[in-house]
Amino acid sequence: MRTIIPTKLADDFIFLEAPRWHQGTLWVPDVFDQKLYHVDLDGEKSVLIDDLPPVPNSLGFLADGTPIIVSSFDRKIMKIIDGALELFADLGGATPHHLNDFSIDDEGRLYVGNFGYDIHGGADQVPTDLHMVDTDGTIRIVATGLEFPNGSAIINDGRTFVVAETWVGRLTAFDRAADGTLSNRRLYADLDGRQPDGICADAEGAIWASCFNTGEVIRVLDGGEITDKIQFEGSAIACCLGGDDGRTLFCSTYVGTIPDQIAKKRHGALFTAQVEVGRACHWQ
Length: 284
Description:
The model has no long low-confidence stretch (mean pLDDT 94). This protein has one domain (2-274): Neuraminidase. The chain has one helix and 25 strands. The longest helix has 5 residues, at 258-262. By secondary structure, it is mostly beta strands. 2% of the residues lie in helices and 52% in strands. The strands form six sheets. A five-stranded mixed β-sheet has the order 1-22-21-20-19, with no helix packed on it.
């Protein structure tokens, strides 16, 4: 296993989720500050939107470049048009639970996870569903019985879908059909007690997984072999590949407790690491 030493890119955030490299810059929402940032490779940051809806915990781009962002508590996904938010999909009738991370295929279909239970109210943890928002706006369940489905990625030229099941410490894979439906659920990797949060894929189909409870960001192969590791202080939240050659790994971290996050203590930071294999997808 190779150990990679990261470099701090920027700090003075609260809690950053879902970093995404797009059009030569990093886009990243601050979940508890309700702001959307641009951060360049020199660490300079600017605020694109400073009044996002509560818990904007995932971000992505449609095939035409339109940014979309989650309004988790409202169970909606919003488009960003000229700096304003417009409704893209309303999942309020599909799930009673707060929305979680999502991924997008090259046709513009979204795969959206949800919490599955009232995590803030102390409810018992229960499995939940994964929804797909099709290109015509249709919302349907494509997988069931998932334990807190979180970050996800599409690999193998679109033939495989991988999702992080956070609380049970595993990455789960599905075969993916041309119409976006999922089948043949199987284990991609048992992470041996690590709790995967945000993930991304590289061009070889390996998964970079941010492990919330251990502060690690690891590169793991189908079957569970870990080839690379980056160790951070505190929690590792999310990651993405980008940069000019696609080989810069951007990592979001937080040093503090959940009460610290709720109290909006500014312990969030972004780091970069140079990796050997570039990102899998050029437009997202």
